[in-house]
Each structure stands twice: as C-alpha cells, then as structure tokens.
Design a protein that fits this description.
The chain contains 8 helices and 7 strands, in the order E-H-E-H-E-H-E-H-E-H-E-H-E-H-H. By secondary structure, the protein is of the alpha/beta class. It has a single domain, classed as P-loop containing nucleotide triphosphate hydrolases (Rossmann fold, 3-Layer(aba) Sandwich), CATH 3.40.50. The protein has a 7-stranded parallel β-sheet, sandwiched between helices. Strand 5, helix 5 and strand 6 form a beta-alpha-beta unit.
Length: 208
C-alpha cells in the first residue's frame, strides 16, 4: 500500500492537478483516496465540483493527518496526500514522515528550481525518521520546444534527488478537466495523450 505525498515549495506548481489525476489513475488499478492536507483544500474543492459517485474520494486531513492515513490504509490500496505549497508547513513535514514516496512537481522556471533546493533539504531531514522515503522530481507543464524547458533537466541534475524520465506536458486537457471536476482520464480522446503521461509516470515511480 504505497502512501504518496505531492510536495511543492511554491504555489502554482500544478501539485493538486497532478494529485487528482494520479489518484484517479491509481483508483483504476485498486482503491485510492486523496488526503487533502493543504489548508487551501483545493482537492476538496475539486471533489465538490465533481459531485459524482465515481470520482475518487477526498478526505479533509488538514488536521490529524496521521490518524487519517491510518484510517484510510484500512480501506484503500493507494493513499495520495495533497500537501501545502511549503515544505515548512507542519502538514508537509508530517506527510514526509508518513509517506513511501514524495513526488515533487517542478515547472520549467528558475523560481521552481530554486524552491526545489529547500525540498531537497527537507527530504534529507525527513529520512532521519522515515529512512524508507523515496523522493522524485517530476517536470510539470513542460513545453518541449522552449529553451528553458530544454535546460530544466540540466538544472535539476545539480540536485541529489532523481528526476522522473516521464515529464508532464503543458496541455489544455489538464486545466479544462479540473475546472469541470474531472480528470484527463475522463476525457476520452481529448485527454488520451495526457492520460498516457499519467499512467506512464505511475509505471515508472510507483512501487506496488
């Protein structure tokens, strides 16, 4: 039963969008739940918009995250934690102590790259109490033809954390589906390329 934390150190990294899409894909392999530990409660807002029985469940875990993890682990095969956009937040630090895997979405921008340095340090600290924690950087909202995107892997290589080979491209399907309370896996042909990215990322980084 993998516990996966979605972690970032700045807003706008696409953390919640990646979270709901990953959880939906995982739910199609076995039961999954999102534990929303972000005080902004964006995952909960998405679930309220979804308002349908087949959407992945979201639990408010801003307070009492450890208890929420224990309760969810009895009922679900996959737990995905949506963390606040700060590694200094107590919920993020608690999530890192409880998780098997931290996924860190990073946009192709200098600000995201600099913010990732702080996450690297926090992961090292978390491993003192959770030595089995894996952490993987995920390039998010990639625009392959831009110079900045092309240089992103080179910049991330300076960090000690591994970078997923699978990058998530900047696609309208991600934005439009979240606004509709859906995911790219619900969009059929319109979201096919994006859905395959999500499935590929899971195949690469999630250990069953």
């Amino acid at each position: 039963m993998p516990v996966i934390a979605l972690v970032s150190n700045k807003g706008g990294a696409g953390k919640t969008t990646l979270c709901v899409n990953l959880a939906t894909a995982l739910a199609r392999r076995g039961t999954a739940v999102i534990l929303d530990a972000d005080p902004q409660r964006s995952s909960l807002q998405w679930r309220a918009i979804a308002d349908r029985d087949d959407a992945v469940a979201v639990v408010d875990a801003v307070d009492g995250l450890a208890d929420a993890v224990r309760a969810a682990a009895r009922r679900h095969a996959h737990l995905v934690i949506d963390c606040p956009p700060s590694v200094q937040a107590p919920q993020t630090r608690e999530a890192l102590g409880l998780s098997d895997l931290a996924l860190i979405p990073v946009q192709p921008s200098p600000l995201d790259l600099w913010a990732s340095v702080h996450i690297e340090r926090e992961v090292e600290t978390a491993r003192e109490r959770n030595p089995g924690l894996r952490a993987v950087l995920v390039i998010n909202q990639l625009e392959p033809r831009t110079r900045l995107s092309q240089l992103m892997r080179q910049g991330l290589a300076e960090l000690s954390l591994p970078v997923a080979e699978t990058a998530i491209r900047r696609r309208m399907a991600y934005r439009s589906s979240v606004l509709e309370g859906r995911t790219v896996l619900d969009q059929g042909g319109r979201g096919a390329a994006a859905a395959e990215e999500i499935r590929q990322l899971i195949r690469e980084v999630v250990r069953q």
